[in-house]
Prior knowledge:
Layout: H1 8-20, E1 25-28, H2 30-33, H3 38-51, E2 61-64, H4 71-76, E3 83-84, E4 88-89, H5 93-103, H6 115-123, E5 129-133, H7 137-140, H8 144-153, E6 156-161, E7 173-176, E8 185-188, E9 194-197, H9 209-212
Parallel strand pairs: 1-2, 5-6, 6-7
Antiparallel strand pairs: 3-4, 8-9
Amino acid sequence: GKLSGVDPEAIRGAARLYARGGNGAIYYGLGVTEHSQGSTTVMAIANLAMATGNIGRPGVGVNPLRGQNNVQGSCDMGSFPHELPGYRHISGEAVRDIYESLWGVKLDEEPGLRIPNMLDAAVDGSFKGIYIQGEDILQSDPDTKHVAAGLAAMECVVVHDLFLNETANYAHVFLPGSTFLEKDGTFTNAERRINMVRKVLEPKARYADWEAT
């Protein structure tokens, strides 16, 4: 109660309502994911849902409200540094064998770095460059001063986006991106519904995002 400023009984009451409510769904926004303890908080939310049985059926679950329109689809396809498509962990040899066979490349068993880890490594001089596509990390990541210091310390920063955002101020190279009107693909929303996208305009920058990359 002292730390949160909320009466402990109110917290307990809310917990009991959620646990006994039959179907309980949790929706959380950027205040959780852009917090310095965002990963820990999301794990706590997931544990709460599992502990109360609010998973695996209609009307329940954990539903993040993302900051961009296709973060869910990006995660499903393996954009995490420690997971391959379908949330299969990179450390599993059998999992790596599947994707090595499909992609024809050898995969490292060690997970990659998350953005905060990249910035830490940049400040200490061991991380030299970054390619940022469709995200303004100077605005979205915790500790803006630390993000700025990490970007400034890198030898090569490439930003690929629609506009010259705050992060682009640190870019050595800026590549223009394509809007949703200029590309084919899919967007996946918070309820995991896959929506098809079909372009109505040719990219003004002449190249699709994947071609520029």
